[in-house]
Amino acid sequence: MNPFSLGPVDYIFTGIGSQPITFAFSYQKLIDPEALKKSLTAVLDYFPVIQSQLHKISESDYEYRITPDGLVFEVNESKSPFHDSDRIEQYVIPVDSIPGKPLTRISLNQTPNGSVLAVSVSHALVDGFSYFHFSPVGPESVG
């Protein structure tokens, strides 16, 4: 499966500012980062494309390559509590679909009143519907 070509529509969603699929989920308890990472590793067995980077193969063509550098998982601490009115931009770092950069970024933000899980995935990899096939973030799947 490694490497594989982009579909024609995927090219629309490459480049800086290419509109990644981005969500933030808030939880009223702290999520264990190791448990989340273990769940993520299991999901990657079924949805490995999430761990991809773009590689240029000609002047106008790219391919996906699955690589450990294709997914960033980070844990951040915040002294500020999360409020439902918060803008998710403070928790999400959007990915850019450019060669050699990760196409997925997952940030677990630990706040005084729970966790905020922020996910940004290249729109070249997923759309809003397929994103939820990947997403291991339901309260019953972490913890």
What does this structure look like?
It is built from 2 helices and 7 strands, in the order E-E-H-E-E-E-E-E-H. Residues 136-143 have low confidence and may be disordered. The protein has a single domain, classed as Chloramphenicol acetyltransferase-like domain (Chloramphenicol Acetyltransferase), CATH 3.30.559.10. Helix content is 15%, strand content 29%. The protein has helices spanning 33-46, 128-134, and strands at 4-5, 21-27, 52-56, 62-66, 71-77, 104-111, 114-121. It starts with a strand and ends in a 9-residue tail after the last helix. The strands form 2 sheets. The protein has a 4-stranded mixed sheet with strand order 2-7-6-5, with no helix packed on it. A 3-stranded antiparallel sheet has the order 1-4-3, with no helix packed on it. Strand 3 and strand 4 form a beta hairpin. By secondary structure, it is an alpha+beta fold.
